[in-house]
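Regression test case RT-17, inverse folding.

Input:
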């Protein structure tokens, strides 16, 4: 080492070397200190970040819990009162006004019953003026009734049993579809037969006049519908 040199002038040179060594140590120490400081700051930032995440999660859980509906037994008195008003009262708890309203909606019983047929009645129809009712069925008779009083006006015989009966639009003619594959046109005033329409190969189930009364349609069990010119039939 230069400090051991015999020349004192070289001592200062050796001292400078020693000081240079001390400066190097200081630089290393500063580097270590800087690294340690960076590590501490990193740890602090990491702890802060973890704390922030935990706090956010806790806040979300509290928010979610506040949004959950309270169980039925934990509802407030105001909530229970509100729910009670929304419940529908059972039938036996309806008010007198409600019961009266329901009573007015019930269908009234028939005000009149017409009797006189001896077997099943298959068809009934009003006259165009609504004053007369015609009925027919399995007992092979057609009956005319006063619709206002229910009194029997007339009984027409000679049918083989009737599936369908109706008035013409002018009310002058009654058409009846019979079991014998024929349709009979009858005078509604005296019951006299005007015309018998044949041509179906099986039972005739349904008859209908057109609104203008010029055509009559007949449907049967033979899968056909036949149309007839009423004016030609009554003229002959």
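Golden output:
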């Amino acid at each position: 080492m230069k400090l051991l040199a015999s020349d004192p002038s070289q001592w200062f040179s050796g001292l400078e070397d020693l000081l240079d060594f001390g400066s190097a140590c200081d630089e290393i120490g500063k580097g270590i200190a800087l690294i340690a400081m960076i590590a501490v700051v990193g740890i602090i930032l990491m702890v802060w970040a973890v704390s922030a995440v935990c706090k956010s999660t806790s806040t979300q859980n509290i928010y979610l819990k506040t949004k959950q509906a309270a169980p039925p037994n934990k509802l407030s008195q105001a909530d229970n009162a509100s729910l009670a008003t929304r419940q529908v009262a059972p039938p036996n708890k309806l008010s007198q006004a409600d019961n009266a309203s329901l009573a007015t909606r019930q269908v009234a019983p028939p005000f009149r019953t017409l009797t006189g047929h001896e077997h099943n009645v298959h068809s009934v129809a009003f006259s165009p003026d609504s004053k007369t009712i015609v009925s027919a069925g399995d007992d092979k008779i057609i009956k005319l009734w006063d619709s206002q009083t229910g009194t029997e006006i007339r009984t027409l015989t000679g049918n083989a049993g009737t599936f369908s009966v109706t008035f013409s639009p002018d009310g002058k003619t009654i058409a009846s579809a019979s079991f014998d594959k024929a349709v009979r046109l009858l005078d509604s005033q005296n019951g006299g037969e005007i015309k018998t329409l044949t041509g179906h190969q099986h039972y005739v189930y349904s008859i209908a006049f057109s609104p203008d009364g010029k055509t009559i349609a007949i449907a049967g069990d033979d899968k056909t519908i036949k149309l007839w010119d009423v004016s030609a039939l009554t003229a002959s």
